[in-house]
Write a structure and sequence with these properties.
single chain; 74 residues; transmembrane; transmembrane helix
Length: 74
């Protein structure tokens, strides 16, 4: 009993180049450090923005309380 195998169709030229590029990109590790640094700096930036917002809200509340106290004392 003989088996017949279907041949896989040849990819179009533009697809073959894209496939080679994707394989080469997946095997390349040279950009991994840059991506890690970008992720870390993004995390730090988000933390700083959040901290500045919280500090800003606290200062705003402090000035509002001071203004209310000054108004009530007059």
């Amino acid at each position: 009993m003989s088996q017949t195998y279907e041949r896989r169709p040849e990819p179009a030229p533009c697809t073959a180049g894209l496939e080679r590029l994707a394989r080469r990109f997946a095997a390349d590790r040279s950009g991994a450090t840059a991506i890690e640094y970008a992720l870390i700096s993004t995390l730090i930036a988000v933390s700083l923005i959040y901290g500045a917002q919280m500090l800003g809200n606290s200062i705003n509340q402090l000035f509002a309380n001071t203004s209310t106290d000054l108004t009530n004392s007059l």
